[in-house]
Design brief:
The chain is of the alpha/beta class. The protein is about 45% helix and about 15% strand. It starts with a strand and ends with a helix.
């Protein structure tokens, strides 16, 4: 299965201007099948804080995006796929150390799910399962210092769920 995933990162220090960042991110949006976009990135690209409205704007402008996941930090995550809109609240663990790597961990779990289940014909229950697993992994990594080297195992994630 071949698909392109994209996770924009409009961090001001990385760009000469934010207008240039927007143009380059639009290029990535025009090519991806799977989008992971954080709440602040969605607002940056659509100028709205309403997730449903922002997702609709991007899906209309970039019909190539088959699956869009919007992460909202400690609030949870949303998945937009075909006619579905699924929200799964975040798992809140008391021993959070740092949030570095949470978005990357979430994204990796989503991509693993797609590799296991495919990108066609996903059902609402599958989207909920995908987000729940990705949210749990993201929550676990916030309890550890570092990022990729401390990613939780499938067994740890399933244990939390």
């Amino acid at each position: 299965m071949l698909f392109i995933s994209f996770d924009p990162n409009p961090q001001p220090p990385l760009w000469d201007t934010m207008d240039n960042a927007r143009v380059q991110i639009e290029c990535g949006l025009s090519k991806c099948d799977v989008l992971k976009i954080a709440d602040n990135e969605l607002e940056f690209m659509t100028e709205t804080t309403d997730f449903d409205r922002g997702a609709a704007i991007l899906r209309k402008a970039f019909p190539n995006i088959r699956l869009m996941n919007v992460t909202a930090g400690a609030e949870g995550s949303y998945s937009y796929y075909e006619r579905f809109r699924v929200f799964v609240p975040a798992l809140k663990l008391k021993n959070t150390v740092e949030t570095t790597g949470a978005g990357d961990t979430f994204c990796a779990c989503v991509l693993n799910y797609i590799l296991d289940h495919g990108l066609s014909g996903l059902r609402e229950e599958e989207l909920r399962e995908m987000l729940s697993f990705a949210n749990a992994a993201a929550a676990l990594i916030t309890t550890r210092k570092g990022a990729l080297r401390v990613m939780p195992s499938r067994e740890e994630i399933n244990g939390l769920l």
